[in-house]
Amino acid sequence: MLKGSIITVLASTEADALNIAERLGKRVESSIYYKKFGEHIRSILVPQKLLDQAEALSVSSAFYLKMSQITSVEGELALLAEASGLKGVVLPPEDSSAFEKIFKDLSIVSMVSNEFKETDGDVNDKGYVYVDRAFNVKGVGTVVLGFSLTEVRPHDKLIALPMKKEVEVKSIQVLDEDQEGVLPGVRIGFALKNVKIEDIEGVTALVKPNIKLVNSIQGFTKFKWTSDADSVHVVAGGIKTIGKIDGNIITLKDEIPITVGRVILLNLNAKPKSSRVYGYAEVK
């Protein structure tokens, strides 16, 4: 069965991001590049907006961070990469010593490389499928697109979030080819059985029935470069929700799988000259 890696490319300009993506794979979808090595598929994501970048990072196994200069934009991208908890490649400005001095408190300083190099990472089995699109196809029925973050085969029954409706996988496609199953890290298209598109409108994930869901997070790390907040956007394994902060606890508007691991916290209403990347937390 196919397995894969998912890489997010961060850069302050779209041209820089696309240049790296083109060195890693070939564009197939509008914002996704691919490269296949036998039974392994590398997917490269090039999101441009902060919330989209956080969402992509939260399902990724590695990242690239291109820093052509150091401004508040690059600073925010650096914090986003740090918040992800992923391993990656940081391509600094010509004066890399300035980068290392400014960001000396971040672990990504150890990932600086003065030359381009390829990297991949294994996608852990989290027991669910991240969904970014759902639509109806004439003659096929309801179809969802996303990334497998677990092993899935036709006839598997999964729970659609947030509506908690059971669905059955009728068939699986990867790059327009039918598959007998997929392992974690693969861009998928599932045709679903006996479910209408209106039944799963707004679906964010398809979760295996044995995966526990949680609606709160205990403990988080706040970056010193951001302002205080009573609520934050929580980006957890591709799932976006709102979290209310009370002391050291974040109460979530929507339930998320306990298996998501590291989540990224954003404060999109941060004060001027303050980073919108609030911090991160671990779901346990």
Give a written overview of the molecule:
The longest helix is centred in the N-terminal third of the chain and has 13 residues, at 72-84. Helices cover 14% and strands 44% of the residues. By secondary structure, it is mostly beta strands. The protein is globular and about 55 Å long. It has 4 helices and 20 strands. This is Translation elongation factor.
Write the CATH fold name of the largest domain.
Rossmann fold
Which structural class fits the helix and strand makeup? Answer: mainly beta
Determine the strand fraction and express it as a percent band.
35-45%
Q: Identify the CATH architecture of the largest domain.
A: 3-Layer(aba) Sandwich
Number of strands: 20
Report the radius of gyration as a whole number of Å: 19 Å
Uncertain regions: pLDDT < 50 for 5+ in a row? none
CATH class of the largest domain: Alpha Beta
Largest sheet: 7 strands, antiparallel
Shape descriptor: globular
Helical residue percent band: 10-25%
First-residue to last-residue Cα separation: 29 Å
Order of helices and strands: EHEEEHEHEHEEEEEEEEEEEEEE
CATH superfamily of the largest domain: P-loop containing nucleotide triphosphate hydrolases
Q: If you average the pLDDT, what whole number results?
A: 95
Protein name: Translation elongation factor
Give me the secondary-structure topology.
Layout: E1 3-11, H1 14-24, E2 26-29, E3 32-37, E4 40-45, H2 50-59, E5 62-66, H3 72-84, E6 88-91, H4 96-102, E7 128-137, E8 141-149, E9 157-161, E10 165-174, E11 177-179, E12 186-193, E13 205-207, E14 213-218, E15 221-222, E16 231-236, E17 239-246, E18 249-257, E19 262-266, E20 277-282
Parallel strand pairs: 1-4, 1-5, 5-6
Antiparallel strand pairs: 2-3, 3-4, 7-8, 7-13, 8-12, 9-10, 9-13, 10-11, 10-12, 14-18, 15-20, 16-17, 16-19, 17-18, 19-20
